[in-house]
Amino acid sequence: MARSFVQALHANSLRFMDAKDRSEQIFTGIAASPGIAHGQVYLLSEREIKVPKYAILETQFEKEEERLDNAIVETRQQIQTIQEEIRSSIGEDEARIFDAHLLVLEDTALIDESIRDMRRDFCNVENAIWRVGQRYVEAFEQIDDEYLRERSSDIRDVMRRLLSNLTGQQLRHLGEIVKSRVLVANDVTPSDSASMGQSNLLGIVTDAGSKTSHAVIVARSMGIPAVVGLGDFCSKIHSDSVVLVDGYDGKVVVNPSEATLFKYGKLKDKKLSLEKRMIEFTKEASCTRDGSRIDLMANIERAEEAERAVSLGADGIGLFRSEYLFMNGNRLPSEEEQFEAYRLAVTGMNGLPVTIRTLDLGGDKILDSSDVPMYRESNPFLGYRAIRFCLDHEKLFLDQLRAILRASAFGKVRIMYPMISGALELSRANEMFELAKEQLREKGIAFDEDLRAGTMIEIPSAAVAADTLVEGSSFFSVGTNDLIQYLLAVDRLNDRVAHLYEPTHPAVVRTLKMIIDAGRNGGIGVSVCGEVAGDPVMVPLLVGLGVESLSMSPSLLPNVKYVVQNMDMAEARAIAKMALETTDGSLILERLLDFYTSRMDQLY
Ligand code: PEP
Ligand code: MG
Q: Ligand 2 center to residue 482 CA distance, Å?
């Protein structure tokens, strides 16, 4: 007979317990991805290598130089090995990218200056080379010439590798966490999350982060329980500790007692049986009790997720975050590679629509490639991001547009632009789209001639002037993750202001209403694809305001569908009316929570 989860937890706890006395400790953070995980910690080192600084004696100078020489040799060998791998698996051109890295290592000016600094300041060699490296990076970042400016990322990369060899600190790669562990890190970036699929993570716990950080969104899609925003948790934990992650309630229990494991074992069994029951409802149509249809779509980051979306009853893909194709590797995917990925998603959906969002790089999603340089910005979310970046990189944008268009010959495809701020930007994007169509026509390559682009509304200027965007758009999709951060001036990644990130703020409710009205008056549909769309508590408000389609992480589909199927439009409209009239966002949330509890009680 299969063991119950409670028994499994108990067995695990015995396995992990050691002779030391370890008392239970509970930490509270932000519940970022639902679920319960239990296991040994994998403490991930900081993204940046910690550079030690200590004084040395003159008699140690030679030894330090020798350490540097050895590290340079080791680094060169590592880069050459990577270069060889790339050469045989991808090609000569791509392998040549690493020539620049090897050149940095051979730069005598950089090495000599570091040794001079070490001797002058009597400090350890890694500290000297780190400071000189920083100076070079900063100097290169200031250069006007784009090619030379690009070299700053080469220097940064080589420095990280060199410092890793000097200090013995490992560079991180989530794919290397093969054993089932709970990842504990200061932060998890989107490029980390791009390699999450190859790992076998039980759960994620981070000091920083919020519900809408991209790495958390990926964790949610993959059904990995996560608690974030725990402050300085990393400094309080050892890599041999055992933790229990409660992604429902935002709790992390270190060294959980048997009583705690038993309690959570029961909770997990209960949640699993509820989820099973809700999955039964996914086979039925997504209609309110009084017959209004609400399309429930899935957000995906990888084409392979399409199948899971279908199995959980998705009516289509409402958001394919295409940038993840670009973030898993150090070179850009070609038009052909993109086309294959989009086609895979399209065929995987068996005729249901797939909405592919054009590249949304920038913000917290930084490309780790020397093909297209991306720079550190003081306000990355207000910076060189998404459509702004694409309109400046015409070849890259056209490659993607053609790849999407070609995939439209294999099923129903929709396309949408992220971060549109106004009508001029939209018309420039549409001009590029028409140019991509023309290029395909010239070559006689098939695509869906009726394909017209939609617009993401996620910048306040686009929301206020939504009526001016109707003409160039076939639909609106509201990106509430960004819209809320810009509207309320709350950085979506900053755990210190996470409590101010309030989806039920009256300004958010009114803005949503404005966008929906503009769409309706212009005769186009409005959907929501930010994280609020997958929050079953928020669903009656969104539907009551007039949203016709919601798009979310596939794992959230069953619960949202259950809520849709168990409410009337009249109830949803009454909630929306109340929300538009009140000045207090917490009252709106209270009303929504009451409503949600009443529906879930029926299921219990
Ligand atoms: C959003 O901003 O709501 C959105 C869906 O896009 P992303 O989270 O990828 O920025
Ligand atoms: Mg966005």
A: 5
